[in-house]
Write a structure and sequence with these properties.
It is built from two helices and no strands. By secondary structure, it is an all-alpha fold.
Length: about 55
């Protein structure tokens, strides 16, 4: 929670702070997260491919 409750809290509205706390409490640990699906989705979305030469290892 220290990441959420810092100097920013005086600048954030109640709604934003509540949203950040919810995301922090329900999200996966960074060490457990596998970004492969998100990278593939990002790479294939949009009008054109951002990284046309990206290949899965």
């Amino acid at each position: 929670m220290k990441l959420v409750k810092n100097d920013w809290r005086s600048c954030l509205g109640e709604s934003s702070l509540s949203d950040l706390m919810l995301i922090y409490s329900e999200s996966e640990s960074v060490g457990k997260y596998d970004p492969t699906d998100a990278v593939n989705w990002w790479n294939s979305s949009g009008k054109r491919s951002q990284r046309p030469f990206y290949n899965d290892p």
